[in-house]
Amino acid sequence: MTVARWFDQRSRAERMATLAALPLLLVLIWTVVYPNVAVIAGSFGHWREFAESPSDVEALKNSIIIAVASVVASLAIGVPLAFLLTRFDFPGRTLLRAAALLPAALPPLVGVISFLFLYGDTGVITRLTQIVLGLQEVPWHLNGIGAIIFIHAYTMYVYVYLFVSAGLERYEASLDEAAVGLGASTFRRLTRVTLPLLTPAIAGSALLVFMSALGSFSAPYVFGGGIRVLSTQILNSKLNDAIGLAYVETTVLAISAVAGLMLFRWLEGKRAYVAAGKGGASRRPVHSRWARVALACAAGLIVLVLVLPHLMIVLVSFAKDGAWTTQVLPPVYTTHNYAGLFTENQLWTPIRNSIVMSVLATAANVVFCVAGAYLIVTRKFSGRRLLEVLVALPWAIPGTAVALGLLATFNKNDIAMGKILLVGTFWILPLAYFVRDIPLVSQAVEGSLRQMDPSLEPAARGLGASWWMAVRRVVLPAARPGIVAGALLACVTAVGEFVASIVLYTHGNRPISIEILAQLRSYAFGTASAYSTLLIGLVLIMALAARIAESRMQ
C-alpha cells in the first residue's frame, strides 16, 4: 500500500465519520444549543429588572449558599462512611453497606415527601419527640435553608460515598505502611497521603453534589418556607407571565452551574497525584470487644435512619385518605389506595404516561448515545471535540433551565426558525427527558468502549467482516455494560422526573411525580404514598430487569 493511498483511505474514513456525526451534531444543536441561545436572547432587556429585584438577588445568594453547604454536609457524611465501610471489618458492615445506597432508590420528590411524613410539623418523629419530652409546641419546624440542606445531605451523600469508596478500593495499602515506617502519625498520614490520593474522587463527587443542589427543585419547593432559590423563582416568574425575567433567572442559574463546574475542575487540577500499584486496600478487623459492640450499635442506628423514609412511605400508602390528621401514626388503613391506581382512569393515566414517556426517551437515548460514543471513542474526525462538549453540556444545565429552553424553542410552528410546536403536546416531556439524560447514557457507554482494545474492530474488518458485523459482534458486546447501566440510569431518572415536568406538563401527559404533588395538595396522603411506593417499585424492577438482561446477554 502506497503512502498516498494510505492517506487517501484515512481521509476517507475521517470524511465518513464526519458525515455520520453530522446528524448527531444537528440534533444536539437543535435540542441543546438552540434552546439555550433562545433563552439568552429572550433575557436581553430584562437584566436590569433582575438586578433591581431584591427577591431575585436573594434567590441567587440562597442558591449558592445551599449548594455549597450541601457539598460540605454530604462530604461530612459520605467520606467518613466510605472510610468506615471500606477500611474496617465489624459486625453489621454488610447490612450497612447495602443500606448506605438506599437513598439512591428514592426519586427526589419521593424523598422529600418521606421527610415531610417523618420530620415535618406533624411528622411521626416530630410528634414522638414532642410527646416524649412533654413539649407544648413541636420541637422544630422543617423549613428554610437548614431543612433544604438537611434533605440534600441525606439524598446526595450517596454520590460522595460511592466515589470515595471506589477510590479506597483502588488505594494502595502499602503507601500507609510506608508512611508508618517513616514515623508519620495517623493524622499526618491521612492529610498528606490518603486524602491527596483521593482528591479526584472527592472533587468529582463534590461537583456532582454542587450541580444537583444548585438546580434542586423538590426540596426548596416543599420545604422552602418562603426561602427563594433560582429554580423555584423561574417557575414563579413563568406562572406570573414574566417570561423575560424567567429567561434572565434561567441564564443566571446556568452561568452559576458552569462557573461551579469550572471552579471544581480547576481545584481538582491544582493537585495531581498518581499512585503506582494494583490497589486493593485491605480491611482492618476491629479487635476491641467494646469497639465492635459500639460499631455494631452505630451501624444498626444508621441503618434504621436510612431505611425509615422507605418504611414511612410504604406505611402511609395504606393509610385512608383524610383519616390521618393529628395522630402520631395513621389510625385507619386500607388497600383501596393501590386498587384505585389501577382501576380509576384518572389515577392510572399518570402511571401509563410515566412508563411510556420514560421508555421512549430511554430508547432514543440508547440509539443516539451509542452512535455518539462510538464516534467519539473510535474515530478521529472534524467536529469530534464539539460532539464531546455538546454531549456533556446538558449535565451542566439545571433541569429548570433545560425546561424553559425547550419552552422557548418548541412553542410554535416556524420551520424557517427551526421551531416545531411541541409545548402543550404529549411529546414535549419525552424530549425533555431525552435531553436531560444524554450525558448519563453517553458517559456510561464511552466508559465501556474506552476499555475495549482499539485493535479489535480493525482486526475484524481485516478478517473480512463487514462494518456492521464488526460493530454487532465486537463493538456492541464491548459496550454492553455501559449500555445497560446508562439505559437503567436514564429510565430511572425519567420515570421519577419532576423538575422539568412541572414546567412543561399538561393535564394529558402529567407524569407520576406531578400527580403525587397534586394528591399531597388535596391531603390525599395515602394515594400520594401509594404512587411513591409504586415509583420505588418501578425503580427496583428496572434495576432487576437490567441485571437479568445483562446476565442473559453474557
Oligomeric organization of the protein chains: single chain
Rg over C-alpha atoms, rounded to the nearest angstrom: 25 Å
Helical proportion?
A: over 70%
Report the sheet-strand fraction: under 5%
Describe the global form: globular
Structural class by sheet pairing and helices: mainly alpha
> Mean pLDDT, as a whole number?
83
User: How many domain modules?
Assistant: 2
- The helix/strand series, from N terminus to C terminus, equals HHHEHHHHHHHHHHEHHHHHHHHHHH
Per CATH, which architecture of the largest domain?
Orthogonal Bundle
Give the number of helices: 24
CATH class of the largest domain: Mainly Alpha
**Uncertain residue segments:** 274-278
Distance between the termini: 39 Å
Strand order of the largest sheet: 1-2
Number of strands: 2
What is the structure about, briefly put?
The chain is mostly helical and 554 residues long.
Description:
It is a single chain. This protein has 554 residues and is mainly alpha-helical. The chain folds into two domains: 1-37 and 340-398 and 429-554, MetI-like (MetI-like fold, Orthogonal Bundle), CATH 1.10.3720.10; 45-316, Orthogonal Bundle (MetI-like fold). Helices cover 74% and strands 1% of the residues. It has 24 helices and two strands.
